[in-house]
Amino acid sequence: MKTIPEEYQIKETIDQRQYLVNGELKTWKGNTTEVFSTISSTEEYQPTLLGSIPDMGEPEAMEALDAAMNAYNRGQGLWPTMHVKDRIECMENFVRQMKTKREIIVKLLMWEIGKSLPDSQKEFDRTVDYINDTIEEYKQLDRNSANFQKNDGVYAHIKRGPLGVVLCLGPYNYPLNETFALLIPAIIMGNTTIFKPAKHGVLLITPLLEAFKSSFPKGVVNILFGRGRAVASPIMQTGKVDVLALIGNSKSANALQEQHPKSNRLRLVLGLEAKNPAIVLPDADLDLTIDECIAGTLSFNGQRCTALKVIYVHEDIKDEFIKRYTKRVDELKFGNPWDEGVKLTPLPEPGKPDYIQELIDDALEKGAKIKNKKGGQRYDNYIWPAVLYPVNKEMRVYQEEQFGPVVPILSFSDIEEPLDDMAESNYGQQVSLFGKDVYTLSPLIDTLVNLVCRVNLNSSCQRGPDVYPFTGRKDSAQSTLSVHDALRSFSIRTFVAFKDNDLNTETIQQLLESKLSNFVSTDYIL
Ligand code: G3H
Question: Among 202, 198, 250, 200, which Cα is nearest to 228's?
Fold first, then answer.
């Protein structure tokens, strides 16, 4: 084992005892859970202890819910009624403080979830950009609504208002970026929030507690630690949550929704599983296709909801594709996140290699072969990506979202085969389509846009740039996220209307001149 560079060594554990409720950093005195990394710090393999986090339950969950509800105060709270300009200032203050924590957060991203150094840096920087872009977008939204419309003798001053209390739960593969892609727009639109970090990637949130505390009025952001079942379930059972914002799997999303007693009141912002296919047509440019399929299937070991999770290759080019693709897979470099040029890194879930092994064994039993030499090789915290061919619909690797390093390949002779499979699939997020002939591509594109929400032409699937809509059909998502759309997903159109008469004209004039109302205002921020 190579020595770990000085700056990335774990010299002391982080024993997190504080949590943020009602603007106060409280000290936890109850049980705690140890946080381990699957990366070893010693010659002989053993997981590294990184620290510990509070193991909270119902009383703290209720405390956080009360704080969020009081801060919202049935729409009368300081935060939901605050002028947009002031809410933006709070967010600017937060992002300024957040930027000072880059080094420690990047280090914890590497240790807690095994993300490579460049990708961890990218996750941090992309999140800061996301916050700044959200601020600019909110200013634009506010500018666009700083006016009055008149139709059929009725004036309207239409803006967007908050929804209430938002429960935010993010995924472990982007514990900073995707959680904040929910939390930040929810906060800035005037909602109050309760946030519980993902099961891995928890400690990296702790350097930000102070920034959350000092940037927002009390109760606007409440941060809890513990198991979802212990903390999120009791909150949902009260029926007092207005929005469930969750990026993760549909099992947890369903379980949480079902606990809310007033389903019509609950708004959902969900990013769930996907099984994005690559479809490789006979005239595809193979060099480019293989580059994109390597990135699509295996960046961050395939632990991305947008990862390519099944490849359909046309019969005519399948041998060539498999030969070249498998060679490239076996040339990828495996190592610790800080190792130069590393592409494959330890899996943060200790049980993941066994799960992937089960998928491989099942596929082999049902007739697939491992096409690459290293496929399925076991390490202490990893399993080398196995490229499986021919895969059929009976195999678990075809049916399940593997969310890890294993690549199922199917061949087709008739394009209807992958199209039928996509139509039957429970998922509908994105597709990658590789080919050149416009006469073949055009009817395909016209169909695929109705089966998924993003057709990537000669490109791998991905969420970014974050200004583009990120959503899905069927079981893959509810609502749309992007810098622009998220502000809408976490708010509702609400307005002041008045009939055109002297009394109203006079009253509105006075409201505008006195600047007493934060809502009725034609001032805007540049
Ligand atoms: O886990 C799913 C992520 O939204 C994927 O985002 O395409 O930027 O990796 P990405």
Answer: 198
